[in-house]
Amino acid sequence: MEIIKKVWKGIWKDSPHVTAYGGGMPSIGCFGITALVTFGIAGLFVYALKSGFDKHVKEENPNLQKSNSFITAKVLDEFYEKVDNRSNYTLRCLTDKNKEMYISITDALTKKKESLDSLINKGDKITFPKGNLSENIGFISGYHEIEEEIYFTDSTKVGNKCADRIKVLK
Question: Given 5, 49, 63, 106, which residue has the most CB atoms within 10 angstroms?
Fold first, then answer.
């Protein structure tokens, strides 16, 4: 061990300004090792996080598919109603299964209910997802619930959908 210390000090004795400690460890080497260890730990953390989300996505996939199955309906009537100093845009529809339901349209980040109102007329066919799950797109993927929406079941008479999730069929 003493021989290694002597050799190490001999290598770096001509350049004491590049040493971080009295032991002769070079500053550049210290920063390099620290950076490599940091990147290695961060890489393992990101890999573990991504693996966890991938597992979550596989477990949730059947729920997402069920949630994103579409309901097709014919618009029977459309109207605005005032609730708590807000106006709600509501559609009265008849589904392909001959069920009447009311869909209250809420604003979405990318589309306002008023823009949807200008596209929809009485008698038009619309389609919207049954559920309220949405997929996060990005490096770390997964699913989240859209809190403004409800999950439509066979017994649902009234529910909410965001304006960007309703499509008008022509």
Answer: 106
φ and ψ of 19, to 5 deg = -100, 140
CA distance 167 to 73: 11
pTM above 0.70, yes or no: no
Listed residue (164, 56, 11) closest to 3, CA to CA: 11
Q: Which two tokens stand for residue 34?
A: 């620290």
Nearest alpha-carbon partner for 66 in 170, 166, 160, 143: 143
Which pairing describes strands 158-162 and 142-145: parallel, antiparallel, or unpaired? unpaired
Contact 122, 75 (CB under 8 A): yes
| 160 CB neighbour count, 10 Å cutoff | 18
Q: Is 12 exposed, middle or buried (0-12, 13-18, 19+ CB in 10 A)?
A: middle
pLDDT tens digit sequence for 56-106: 656 666 767 777 789 999 999 998 877 777 778 999 999 988 999 999 998
Token digits of residue 128:
């919207």
Pairing type for strands 158-162 and 100-106 reads parallel
Tell me 26's DSSP state: B
- Count of positions (residues) in the chain: 170
